[in-house]
Amino acid sequence: MYQAAVLTVSDRSSKGERPDTAGPLVARLLEEAGYEVVRTAVVPDEQSQIEDFLKDIADRRLAQLLLTTGGTGFAPRDVTPEATLAVCERMTPGIPEAMRYASMRVTARAMLSRAQAGIRGGTLIINLPGSPKAARENLEAVLPALEHGLEMLSGRPADCAKLPD
């Protein structure tokens, strides 16, 4: 079982003006897939606060998978991708490419996502959209492959020829 953390990035939710619906949905989907969600949080669209959370989880090795939701669009305060780029040591472009590809089947607006994914230490960080519907679609597009990626990231022997169930 892998540990996971979920960070919601939202000015309004961080102020209590709007309930966070995407973060709890993502946490539930992870738990249903067999992950242990060890931490959830909500922060405003402030790059330094996003970076601090990402670094804390990764550097303290609290979770092997860290998902963010929100802050991936074109709005001036959408800075989650920049925070992710700033803290990651290696980028994993195939993950957001796969998410956008899957979402493009639903809406052409998926091409507007600026989501990123990368690795810091032993933690895989992935940006999901803030909409619960889009977060679900994006996560479901990549979730079957993540366990294999986390296996490789951990340094344990991983059978790269074996296809996921």
Classification by helices and strands: alpha/beta
Compute the CA-based radius of gyration. 15 Å
Question: Can you write the helix and strand succession as a string?
Answer: EHHEHEHEHEEH
Proportion in β-strands: 15-25%
Uncertain ranges: none
CATH C-level class is Alpha Beta
- Give me the side-by-side strand order of the main sheet: 2-1-3-6-5-4
Annotation, overall tally of beta strands: 6
**Mean model confidence by pLDDT:** 95
Name the features.
Molybdenum Cofactor Biosythetic Enzyme, Chain A, 165 residues, 6-stranded mixed β-sheet, 42% helix, single chain, alpha/beta
Q: What report would you give on this structure?
A:
The chain has 6 helices and 6 strands. By secondary structure, the chain is of the alpha/beta class. A 6-stranded mixed sheet has the order 2-1-3-6-5-4, sandwiched between helices. It is globular and about 45 Å long. The relative contact order is 0.18. The mean pLDDT is 95.
